[in-house]
C-alpha cells in the first residue's frame, strides 16, 4: 500500500514541527552544558574577583577562544 503524497502545506507544517523540536532539543542541551560548567565554578576560588571582573574575564576568554586565552594567561608572571 502506497502512502499518499504530502501536500506542500502538510510538508511545511511537518518541517515547522521538526524545527521547533530541534530548537527545543538545542536549548535543552545548551542549558545542560552551561549547568555543568556552572557547577565547576563551585570548585574554583573566585571570591577574589568582583562579579564584573568575573563576567568580563569569561566574556573575553570566550571571545578570543579558550586556547588563545589560556596561552596568553599562562605567559603572565605569577602573582606574589
Automatic annotation (TrEMBL):
<feature type="coiled-coil region">
    <location>
        <begin position="5"/>
        <end position="32"/>
    </location>
</feature>
<protein>
    <submittedName>
        <fullName>Uncharacterized protein</fullName>
    </submittedName>
</protein>
<keyword id="KW-0175">Coiled coil</keyword>
Amino acid at each position: 500500500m502506497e502512502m499518499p503524497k504530502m501536500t506542500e502545506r502538510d510538508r511545511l507544517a511537518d518541517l515547522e514541527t521538526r524545527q521547533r523540536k530541534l530548537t527545543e532539543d538545542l536549548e535543552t542541551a545548551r542549558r545542560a552544558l552551561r549547568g555543568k560548567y556552572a557547577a565547576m565554578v563551585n570548585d574554583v576560588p573566585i571570591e577574589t574577583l568582583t562579579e564584573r571582573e568575573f563576567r568580563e574575564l569569561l566574556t573575553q576568554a570566550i571571545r578570543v577562544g579558550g586556547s588563545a586565552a589560556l596561552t596568553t594567561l599562562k605567559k603572565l608572571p605569577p602573582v606574589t
